[in-house]
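Budget justification aside, the reviewers requested a transparent look at the raw inputs and outputs of the sequence design task funded under Objective 1. We therefore reproduce one unedited record. The lines immediately below are the structure tokens for a 351-residue chain.
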């Protein structure tokens, strides 16, 4: 099998091709050129033609096909619809961080699977069902393609697109390693976020391997029965098991645990929801990320401003932990959290 150059780091490329005379510096050159131009370096760029021919014979440079791109006129979020190794389509979202005049940049929200097996009641991707895992190069190329299309640099990656990243663990971690390479995309490990609905064995592995990437856990309810109604994963990995794995994660990493809370009016924004969360996480340093639900079906609605502020006030009183309200952009083009379903914007508006 050829070495897929968008799946291996420069160090791994050197390890596999040192036998034909490739040096670490040349491996870095190849890595950087593949990211920048999508090709191997030319023979006059520091690598002899004979060696380049050998590298070409042993490697492959696959490419995602861009099916559709839509930019929100409201907030500048951009949604990219891609096709990779199969006929299935998947999406990435370019998130603009343009509020600091001297630090204009983007974060890319990438997909790790086509569809998702988790079946969360409030998520459009979950309604698709699971189709397949994305290969590492298909994850990596989402960022490469978005970066090439962007006027400002990409400085962060969040695994919050289609799919459950922890069920494609090896490819997700390999893609994250690729993103970090200083000779390539040079994205800090602290700027790479991996989100999960709570796959306990994978969280334990993440902890055991001392991965440096940020971990975000989608909790959404501290009541196991309510959480089961929203998130079927509760049946496989209970809230209690999940929190125990997060306590172990904090103990090993020393980091606060980031809990994502998708707010649904009248469902998980009550005073008792805050009280149950305080009891569940007692003694565990956490940060809470609040985000409005995005459900085109209308079954779930975000809280009103008054409901949001009241819930946030109770959380602050009960937990005394950092609470961040996260803006979910791109709603008008179906690019917001929970809205990705592998379809072009035109298809949404035709329904």
């Amino acid at each position: 099998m050829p070495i897929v150059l968008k799946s291996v780091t420069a160090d791994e490329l050197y390890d596999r091709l040192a036998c034909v005379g490739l040096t670490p510096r040349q491996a870095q050159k190849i890595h950087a050129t593949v990211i920048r131009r999508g090709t191997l370096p030319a023979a006059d760029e520091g690598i002899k033609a004979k060696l380049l021919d050998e590298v070409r014979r042993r490697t492959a440079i696959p490419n995602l096909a861009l099916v559709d791109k839509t930019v929100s006129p409201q907030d500048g979020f951009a949604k990219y619809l891609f096709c990779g190794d199969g006929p299935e389509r998947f999406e990435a979202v370019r998130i603009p961080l343009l509020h600091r005049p001297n630090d204009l940049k983007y974060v890319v929200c990438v997909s790790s699977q086509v569809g998702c097996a988790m079946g969360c009641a409030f998520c459009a991707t979950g309604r698709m069902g699971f189709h397949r895992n994305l290969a590492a190069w298909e994850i990596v190329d989402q960022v490469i393609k978005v970066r090439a299309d962007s006027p400002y640099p990409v400085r962060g990656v969040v695994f919050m697109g289609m799919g459950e990243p922890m069920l494609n663990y090896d490819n997700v971690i390999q893609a994250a390693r690729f993103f970090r390479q200083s000779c390539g995309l040079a994205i800090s490990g602290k700027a790479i976020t991996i989100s999960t609905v709570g796959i306990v064995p994978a969280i334990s592995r993440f902890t055991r391997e001392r991965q440096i990437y940020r971990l975000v856990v989608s909790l959404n309810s501290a009541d196991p029965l309510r959480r089961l109604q929203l998130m079927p994963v509760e049946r496989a990995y209970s809230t209690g098991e999940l929190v125990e794995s997060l306590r172990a994660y904090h103990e090993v990493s020393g980091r606060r645990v980031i809990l994502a809370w998708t707010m649904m009016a009248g469902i998980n924004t009550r005073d008792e929801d805050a009280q149950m969360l305080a009891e569940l996480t007692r003694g565990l340093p956490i940060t809470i990320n609040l985000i409005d639900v995005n459900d085109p079906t209308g079954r779930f609605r975000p809280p009103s401003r008054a409901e949001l502020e009241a819930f946030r006030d109770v959380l602050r009183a009960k937990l005394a932990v950092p609470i961040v309200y996260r803006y979910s952009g791109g709603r008008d083009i179906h690019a917001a959290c929970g809205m990705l379903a592998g379809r072009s914007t035109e298809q949404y508006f035709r329904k």
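The first helix runs from residue 10 to 17. The longest strand covers residues 89-97. Computational costs for records of this kind are itemized in the attached budget.
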